[in-house]
Amino acid sequence: MGGPGTGFETFHETRLGSIVRGDSVDVLATYDDESVDLIMTSPPFGLVRKKDYGNVDAGDYTEWFRPFAEQFHRVLKPSGSLVIDIGGAWNKGFPTRSLYHFKLLIMLCEEYGFHLAQDFYWWNPAKLPTPAEWVTVRRLRVKDAINTVWWLAKTPWPKASNRRVLQPYSSSMRSLLNSGFTPRRRPSGHDLGDSFRDNGAAIPPNLIAIPNTESNSFYLRYCAERGLKPHPARFPADLPEYFIRMLTEPGDLVLDPFAGSCVTGEVCERTERQWLCIEILPEYCEAALGRFLRPAHETARHSADPEHPSNYYRVPRPGIYWNGRDGSPLPADGGRKRVTANKDSDRTR
Q: pTM (2 decimals)?
């Protein structure tokens, strides 16, 4: 694919897929209508601060996205899905949030005919307390630790099965299943009835807990050994794999139009899906080769043991530290004036 004068080129090929260097709009213009089963991607976020990978200002984001939206809708099969991992942004100079990613969602649905199948939230338990000015300095906000993940489709009935992404029952649920329960109506009015049974595993929620803690992976070592710059905004392989397993079959075609380090392609290669990763910056294409030269023994997999501690990430109840005292007074000006806090008094609960 591609060549002189086309504006893009095939950078790397495997048995199942390829990395193409170029602009996604140009590349997708060569693809047939309704030829892609899943678009799984994390586009550059609409941030206030510019990043090396070429993000767009939040205020201009929906207009920038329009040519991609048109091609996405055209190439996606009626049974296919579009999954977009997109982080939020803060308004410049204020502890308030931008609405750009919600505006993107509304535009895709109301102007391009996509349906919102479900909204997901990727929680990164390892996320540092950011933005520092509002979280650790003025202490006005809590840390921003989730990305929204929009699951969209051309019809209300894309192919999907949550049986592909089931989770182990909790210990309390297993105890209930073993000892039984008395059917009764909950305070909410929901009647549990007597059909509560052991189905072997639990249906997961739309909160996905995955720490983004890659620090010594084969990809990073590959880049370091060759003096290559790794992509700075990589999502963990577990995120695309979740949706690839839930929404596609082996042999289906998965597209990542903002491929970055080509994590999506690596997952597809391992799960026997066909794939196309498009990345516009040649240095990131060069680094992405490390995804496909990994020795078999380097492929990290999680323990299948449901009791293994690395398989769980716990969220404390909000009231653990509440002790009847509210601590220091709330700033009367809402934190507008920056005050350097005393470290000892800052620990007041």
A: 0.87
